[in-house]
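Re: Re: ligand-bound prediction request (bumping)

Still looking for help on this. To restate: I need the protein modeled with flavin-adenine dinucleotide bound, output as structure tokens. Inputs repeated here so nobody has to scroll up.
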Amino acid sequence: MIANERPVIADSLWTATANPAPNCPPLVGEVEADLAIVGGGFTGLSAALHAAEAGLRVVVLEAETPGWGASGRNGGQVNPGLYVDPDAVEARFGPDMGARMVAFAGGAGRLVFDLIGRHGIQCDARPVGWIRAAHNAGAMEDIRGKVDQWRRRGAKVELLSRDAVAEMVGTTVYAGGLIDRRGGNLHPLNYALGLAGAALRAGAAVHGASRVERLAREGATHVLRTSRGAVRAGKVLLCTNGYTDGLAPPLAREVVPVRSVQVATDPLPPEIAASILPGRQAPSDTRRLLLYYRMDRDGRFIMGGRGAYGDAATQGRLEALRRVSVQMFPQLTPFGWRHAWGGFIAATPDHYPRLVRMGPGVMAGLGYNGRGVALATAMGKLMAEWAAGRPEQELAFPVTEPQPIPFHGLRRLGVAATVAKYRLLDAMGL
Ligand SMILES: Cc1cc2nc3c(=O)[nH]c(=O)nc-3n(C[C@H](O)[C@H](O)[C@H](O)COP(=O)(O)OP(=O)(O)OC[C@H]3O[C@@H](n4cnc5c(N)ncnc54)[C@H](O)[C@@H]3O)c2cc1C
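Reply:
Sorry for the wait, this slipped through. Here it is.
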């Protein structure tokens, strides 16, 4: 069970199958550091690992335990690239910065698998490619465009026919799709715990149960206070994504937290487990409220999709995920469902992540729009480069001033209305 979480989304398969966690005791007393990092998910832990490897004295402060947020709960899909297609990125940000951003995001999957290999992280990593499956002919047109754009940039992305997707996925519901060979999947909580262990071995201090309650400046020094201690640091990274609280206003208004949920079966008999995703890719599809699904190492089937803010509505979404799973894979009908869990992703209005200058010496990275396994890892590395002295203009992602979303308090209502509309369009197959 995920500790300190609402019961309706707390029964996580990843928590039930987690490796032993590294020892991350609460911060007690006052310490000095070159870099203090708030948040122990992929962003914060990757930043800590890379900054410690660069020789900085690093302290991570996590309110709960490493991987407690989205990083320990997600679908484990390593999907390279930004939500926005490469041509559109370059059109908006220009040939120099746009190309850097495309290379940064396109290479993020490789970075994940390289880190796992280099640090011996046990997280069922499978670099078997990532499938995007088209739910209708219109979506297939869009897929063709994506394949073309990535191939022009030399990426290993291939178009899949209707038959090829049917064979790889094990269902005939799709019109075709693509496979991005740079991607794959992993056990997300074990990846997060492995990153925490690697950061500790590289010399970083990682503290759980250490919510930062105050962030203040004293001259050139930043002081971060928890209930039992304080860190005095030259630089600060805010890595709190969909769990951003009121610590550093207006950061919480930079993104809209949106709930995503998953359900998992018990381990299936081998012949059933072999009939679904035999190559063990983890697809996402192109519905507006996309479905993402996979098998785990023990032959459990896992289905994920958009959640809701309220508990009753979330129960309804969990039930809908079980129903759609059986529609797509009727062989699942006799088997029981064991786990149900979820968490917050962080959405931005234009679907781009944000690297935000929060003041002198304070940087925030967030807003991965549900694609953070690879992107948050890459963003953490980039933030570590900044912390180690790389100038902003040399980074592979543009730094912006805070851009609080107008009428942020009403955004949840907007999300709920949009979800209802999208659900109807998806149900009509449009
Ligand atoms: C159900 C679900 C499925 C998903 N599936 C996928 C997927 O398959 N592929 C993919 O690429 N992405 C997926 N995502 C998105 C991905 O998980 C996130 O983008 C990524 O984990 C973000 O990492 P992070 O480190 O920035 O934030 P998080 O992992 O959310 O970590 C933020 C941390 O900050 C801590 N924190 C907040 N405030 C404070 C404070 N004041 N002091 C100290 N600590 C604080 C929180 O406790 C939390 O642990 C999914 C997300 C969810 C919820």
